[in-house]
Amino acid sequence: MMAQLFADCLNEVLEHLEDDMVDLHSCLLVNHLWCNVSVRIFWRNVWNYKTSNLRTLITCLPNESKEILHNNGIIISTPTSKPPMFNYASFCKFLSIYQISNKVEFLLNKRFITSYNLGNNTSIVTQEIIKLFFNQISSLKKLQLGKYPNKINFYPEAKVCLKNLTELQCVSNLSSEFFYQLSQVCHNISSLDILNEQFISKGLIDLTSAQKNLQSFGMTQYYKPTNLNSLIEKLSTSLIKLNLNEDNYISLLFIAKFTNLQELKLCYSYMRNFVDFEKLQYTIFPNLQILKIQRACPRFDLLIKFLENNGNNLKECYIGDYSGFSDNSLNLAIAEFCPNLRKLSIGFKNNELETMKIVLNGCQNLESMKIWHVSGFLGEKEALESVVKYSHDNFYEIILYHIYDTQSELLPEELESFFINWTNRVPQKSLSLITVNDFTNNLDENDEIIKIIKKYIELGVIKRFKTTHFDELC
SUPFAM superfamilies in the record, alphabetically (predicted)? Predict the structure, then answer.
């Protein structure tokens, strides 16, 4: 009983290392128990696989597959000739055909001179590894197909593997037969993300229609496929997440039928993509909690009306934070119509210090704020001083977002003054400080600033400090 309890506790702890492959690999080497627990996490997501993982999978291939590789002159060195310790492929929960193919190509790249040999052998090895996964995985949760439909077949075992699939990412123009086979097996996909190509396969439309529990739908497109409306018509009105990306030349008015939406994300390059937003502004989404409108924006007056109708329930709001679009009337509308926000991405121009005070006072539940820093906007010093003075008790996270190649102008003494003032807040809450830069992470390159940050980490004032690239916090 005690041994099982310890194993369960260990599993809970190691789950937090899912994206930390270095430390997780160290855990594999502790002892047999630690190895048994961590190996399942280590092999869960193919996006974390390295070349060594693929070599291990080659060792795990059945003799029939190894013979196929041999007959095609494909020789790949493996870590050991001994039988594998675990059925590694069976631990996978997130399988990406795209990622496996890329890593196989990288593995083979130095062995085959001509592009034909490289492409052909990549296809053969990928096919056998995917077959291994489909044979060994008892319940795959997430599948990313990419543009490689020829690398998947529906083996009998695949019906078991894919039965409980909940997340699917695919391109729109795979063969109808492929999607038809998938629709016979998968009925409980909750999240579907599609990259639209020149046309949408009829089989994909049928697959979408067959889903009983589709909650999240995402679509990325660079032009309008001929039968896009047929796909949209099959989407369940019970959707709770909708994510539309890149250039879109269809009316957004269809969004109005999804009245159960909890999250709406629109990410477009041009203002002209917001077709019919002037009508959508009047639609009421009573459950909407997260609004992300990134890169380009519709007209600010339309957004303000949308927030007047839907802002009260919003918990997170991100508008224009890729390109730094800011408008004082919009910021004031956020303060007025979005009082329950917990996370906000926002920019204030040099003459809008009073507006920042109004926003912080109006959004009393605010926990995290991403503050844009670019030419013509409030400096970091002024922004940090306002956060200390006017943010409420729940606030704990500041994200300084340096748009484009904007450099940090924060002086060490200014940062220390902010930390001292934060320390004097009552009640005091440990702070998370994150800096986001497009091209350079210059704040953590200043030795004096890093020394100050380490000092306040030791004092318990800073709970978390991180510098990151802007894409990680979209």
Answer: RNI-like (SSF52047)
Helices 412-423 + 380-390 axis angle, to 10 = 0
**DSSP classification of residue 370:** E
pLDDT per position as a tens digit, 387-410: 999 999 999 999 998 887 778 888
Give the whole-angstrom CA distance, residue 456 versus residue 464. Answer: 10
The structure tokens listed for 1 are 């009983």
Instruction: List residues bridging with 194 in a β-sheet.
Output: 170, 219
| pLDDT score recorded for residue 20 | 56
- In one-letter notation, the amino acid at residue 461 is V
pLDDT at 1: 46
The model's pLDDT over 246-287, given as tens digits with 9 standing for 90+, comes to 766 688 999 999 999 999 999 888 888 888 999 999 999 999
Burial 249-288, CB ≥16 within 10 A → b, else e: ebebebbeebeebbbbbbbbeeeebbeebeebbebebeeb
SS3 content of the chain, % helix, strand, coil (to 5): 45, 15, 40
- Token pair 């009573």: residue: 286
Contact 65, 128 (CB under 8 A): yes
Local structure of residue 349 (DSSP, 8 states): B
The whole-chain average pLDDT of the chain stands at 84
> What pLDDT, on a 0 to 100 scale, did the predictor assign at position 115?
53
Helix (H, G, I), strand (E, B) or coil at 121: helix
Taken in order of first residue, the domains within the chain and their CATH numbers are 7-43 (no CATH), 323-473 (3.80.10)
Q: What is the mean pLDDT of residues 276-304?
A: 94
Name residue 349's beta-bridge partners.
Answer: 377
What does pTM read for this prediction? 0.85
For residues 334-361, average pLDDT: 95
Structure token pair of residue 202 = 């009829």
**Interatomic CA distance for residues 53 and 82, integer angstroms:** 16
Residue 32's pLDDT is 61
Strands 316-319 and 241-245: what pairing? unpaired
| Residues contacting 186, CB < 8 A, separation 6+ | 162, 163, 165, 168, 207, 210, 211
Rounded CA gap, 204 and 219, in Å? Answer: 13
Could you tell me if 188 and 160 are in contact, meaning their C-beta atoms sit under 8 angstroms apart?
no
For the record, the structure tokens of 287 come out as 């459950």
Whether pLDDT at 21 is above 70: no
Per-residue pLDDT of 151-206, as tens digits, reads: 455 566 777 888 899 999 998 888 888 888 889 888 999 999 998 887 888 999 99
Residue 143 CA, chain-centre distance (Å), reads 15
Collapsing DSSP states into helix, strand and coil, what is residue 402? Answer: strand
